[in-house]
Design goal:
This protein is 32% helix and 17% strand. It is an alpha/beta fold. It is globular.
Length: 340
């Protein structure tokens, strides 16, 4: 497998002119554009992206110069503004996409039931009900169906169905969709009831893309971590080199993990640094993964540009939907639901 060639071909799909009848999408909680890139690769025309983080918006605009961006709090964005910015009427939009912040659900965090971020899905539902798209896609972490978080999952499902949609929710792993990263996520797909079409999810499309294949032929133009404690770094490296490839716990309860060369990369978290040192390491433990290596493991083509330093780039990657994963979902929706 020539993984860089696969990513380059996907990038060309993103750059290709849109067909006159190209399906439309609005992306909320858009981040730097992982989902947006996937929809673009699948031939969609994005009419609006919604994001509040400054670095994410700067990165998005650099890579999607023709997509309008609402830079601000989604809670202050009205349905009327969405319709005015896109020139749509309620019911005309093909796909409404969103990945409400998931840290409150994540098993990697404290999993607080009352975390305010667990309620941001209500802003998504509010706009969903106002726009009434034909289809919606909502992505979140697998932790929302574990333990006490199941109550919130059930509430989300009720609200989505009450919005006038047939809804299917399924745990899916990006590593079966040409992404060299084991990243399990809950994918909600809803179809407006009047369309009388059952929602469905794409089936696995690929075998595993392993870490060593993913990072082949990278150039030296990479953003590397900057370690704040130079004296601690050699000790950390020695410990990491002695650790198992599945990860060993160091410093404030975090897991620093040596990637296995013949397995997909472990899940890339949003918080990928501690003291300037990344949590994911080369198989030999010699250093943290660079931003470009993290990007490859998240299926970002090499021509996608990240703005800022290591912490900025790694956070954008860890907080995004892998583009090739979303490309598969978008293709499925286009051919199996919208074309039905």
């Amino acid at each position: 497998m020539n993984y860089p060639a696969i990513l380059d071909e996907a990038w060309q799909q993103h750059l290709a002119p849109r067909a006159d009848d190209a399906p439309t999408v609005i992306s909320t909680f858009a981040g730097c554009g992982g989902s947006s890139l996937g929809y673009s690769m699948a031939g969609f025309r994005e009419l609006l992206a919604v994001e509040w983080d400054n670095n994410a918006v700067e990165t998005f605009r650099l890579n999607f110069p023709d997509v309008p961006v609402y830079h601000g709090d989604i809670g202050k964005l009205s349905t009327e503004q969405c319709l005015e910015m896109t020139g749509l009427q309620p019911g005309e939009l093909d796909v409404f996409d969103g990945s409400p912040p998931c840290q409150g659900f994540s098993t990697a965090g404290k999993r607080r039931f009352d975390d305010d971020r667990n309620q941001l899905f209500r802003e998504y539902v509010r706009l969903l009900r106002g726009l009434q798209p034909k289809v919606f896609v909502m992505e979140n972490v697998s932790g929302m169906v574990k333990g006490k978080m199941k109550l919130i999952f059930a509430e989300i499902l009720r609200e989505l169905k009450a919005s006038g949609y047939k809804v299917s929710a399924r745990l899916m792993n990006a590593m079966y969709f040409n992404v060299p990263q084991s990243r399990e996520r809950m994918i909600f797909i809803g179809v407006r009831e009047d369309l009388e079409i059952e929602p469905s999810h794409p089936k696995a499309e690929s075998g595993l893309v392993v870490f060593s294949t993913a990072i082949e032929h990278l150039s030296g133009n990479e953003i590397m971590p900057v370690v704040s404690d130079k004296h601690a770094y050699p000790k950390m490296i020695r410990q990491i080199r002695q650790g198992e490839s599945i990860g060993k716990r160091f410093g404030k309860g975090f897991n620093w993990i040596r990637c296995h060369p013949q397995r997909p990369c472990p899940t890339i978290p949003k918080s990928t640094t501690y003291g300037g040192l990344g949590f994911l390491f080369l198989p030999d433990g010699s250093r943290s993964l660079s931003v470009r290596e993290l990007a490859r493991c998240a299926s970002y083509p090499d021509r996608f540009v990240f703005v800022g330093g290591y912490s900025d780039g790694s956070a954008r990657i860890g907080n995004s939907v892998p583009p090739l994963f979303m490309r598969s979902i978008a293709r499925h929706i286009r051919t199996e639901i919208l074309a039905a």
